[in-house]
Write the structure tokens for this entry.
Amino acid sequence: MRFLAINYYRAIKIFPDFSYFCRMDSFTQIALGIAIAEVCAGKKLKNKTVLYGAILGTIPDLDVVVGLFLNPVDAVLIHRGISHSLFLFLFLSPVLGWIISKTERDKINFVQATVMAFWCLFTHVLLDVFTSWGTQILWPLDERFALKTIFVIDPLYTIPLVIALIMVWKTKDTILREKYIVLGLFISSAYLLLSCFIKVHALNQFEKALTKQGIHYSEIIVKPTAFNLILWNANVATADNYVLGDYSLFDTQPISFTAYNKNKILESQLKGNSDFEKLKKASEGWYIISQKKGSLYFNDLRFGLLDDNPKNPQFAFSYQFIAGNVEMKAVEVPKSKRDGKRLLQKIVTRMKGN
């Protein structure tokens, strides 16, 4: 539990960074991987499921390591791409199953090891699909899937898994081990299902408010704020603006919206720029181009604002375009720990209702 607390404290300090916006936190994926390994092979491998579950649960996110050697914008594009593909898992699982069966000779056979490998990999991706950053589960198809019902870090999902794993580690009784892990997975999965119902409710509230206020829109996305299912954000696309609003389950007053101009004139200055086209694709069209002191900025709307001042908004995920040898290059705007702390304070206050 101390490791869990340290992991979440670290996430709170740096979560405005790209890596925490676009992937489920590593500790949660490791916990899920171990839980699935225990279900598939706990009777065969005993506590060695900790080793294999942790490794298998981490493999899809190794694209983050690959991204360290790429242009930062290219790293954004490859994340949750081929490494999160069902087709890759169908190929990779037998290879990993063969390695595990050879390593654990006389304990687990090739078929059992392959099944364990596949489900550890696949459940990693299924969990990612519930978050906001799109996942190319059907790669090589370009379409990314994102249910947007849970933030990339949510302790209420992780804690039941961790408690179950601790109980499993402490007992050698195979029947009890199975009961503990099934219960942990049931509770965490029920929480995911709950997030879907709450999102439908939040979406309904946003749609009612938009209709009542006479705001005509073409598209809307709704997603939870950091670490909770109480406060939800909405991004709404209108003809000339993006309209942003939030809703808490404890609200007693009507939802208010703030409009941000799409700045199509500024966007025209970046037409044909390779980094701009890549970021445009990665953001799935949810972006605003802004200008400060003569520099152009690409702001991804899906991850909200650090400062919601309409005259000078500060977006959580932003790139500055700087002069290059051939064309302007996009460089991610650094964020300080104070940005994350300030945003979390605003979320906690807003969660209490308007």
